[in-house]
Amino acid sequence: MQKKYLLAPGPTPVPESALLAMAAPIIHHRTPQFSAIFKEAASLLKYLFQTKMEVLILAASGTGAMEGSITNTLSPGDEVIAINGGKFGERWGKISEAYGLKVHWIKVEWGHAVDIAEVEKLLNDNPKTRAVLVQASETSTTATHPVKEIAALTKDRDCLTIVDGITAVGVFDVPMDDWGIDILLSGSQKAMMLPPGLAFAALSEKAWKFNETSTCPRFYFDFAKERKNLANDTSAYTPATTLITGLLESMKMLKEEGLENVFARHNRLARATRAACVALGLELLAPRNPSDAATGAFLPEGIDGGKFVKYIRDGVGVTLAGGQDHLKGKIIRIAHLGYVDTFDTIIAISAIEMALKKFGHNVTLGAGVAAAEAILAEGL
Ligand SMILES: *Cc1c(COP(=O)(O)O)cnc(C)c1O
Question: Which fold is adopted by the domain 258-379?
């Protein structure tokens, strides 16, 4: 037999209590029993998103919330700034173009954060810009962007800051209300410790004002309709009842751990993994502005990343992620997000060490694990 470990930046492992909750027989969604689950989960989501606003629960993958954020606040012809520092930033721009918005692209070198001065200049040069679209954590490059500073730039303009927080919410501190973020998104299969299938979006008062005049075509993702239904502890269409039952469990777990401890755990695992990569001689992809969701590192010259990731997955039993686009075959990405703790991180690092040796790279076995343990011990 071979035991399997899932340490990719989505989907992520699901805790036993959530799995068991989701194994219960299906209940009907238009019942007081389900409404009670829905209501409590929705309330706990506000804690996670650090907002007093409602958090909409959508039956979709994360991209559904991205698309809905655009179609519910903007109109064809509107100008937006898309910060393209990786696959997900590129997706912001592509969705906008699909709906006839005019996109001002900011191309950011992969692994880097956007230069806030560049955002400010583009906003000044294009005063009709209606939204800045950004990732708090660009999962494809394991880098963060300065979301707080961007929100401060749009605060007094007729412009929204729309933040894809899909690998940031529940990973590190992104206080929506404090920072003045206008839309914050997440998805179930990342830090929220659930299977894929739910997406979440919270809108500020300003974003709801934009909603009143937005004319993008929409039907299924109609945020105003969802908000009305949410007030009655239900959703417009059949909710993903099983996933929401699991959501209540995972939200209770996060609440019990406490957001500060959740952030500290992710940070500790991320620092340990970065230290391990450095000890193994692997160059980090985002050394200056790393996300605590996942660590990206370049593989040594001559190792085929595709084969390496496949070997670790099928030969060793540990699922990591490789690179996308021009980084395909060149990097590995090790996740720390969601239901992941000290010994999951040790497993990932140990697997990488042994695989490096197998692929003929000259590593000192245990060097990465030792570097990681020095940091992980803080949490024990
Ligand atoms: C996973 C992810 C998404 C959503 O992707 P889906 O496949 O639609 O769930 C969006 N943005 C970021 C940063 C992500 O990590």
Answer: Aspartate Aminotransferase, domain 1 (3.90.1150)
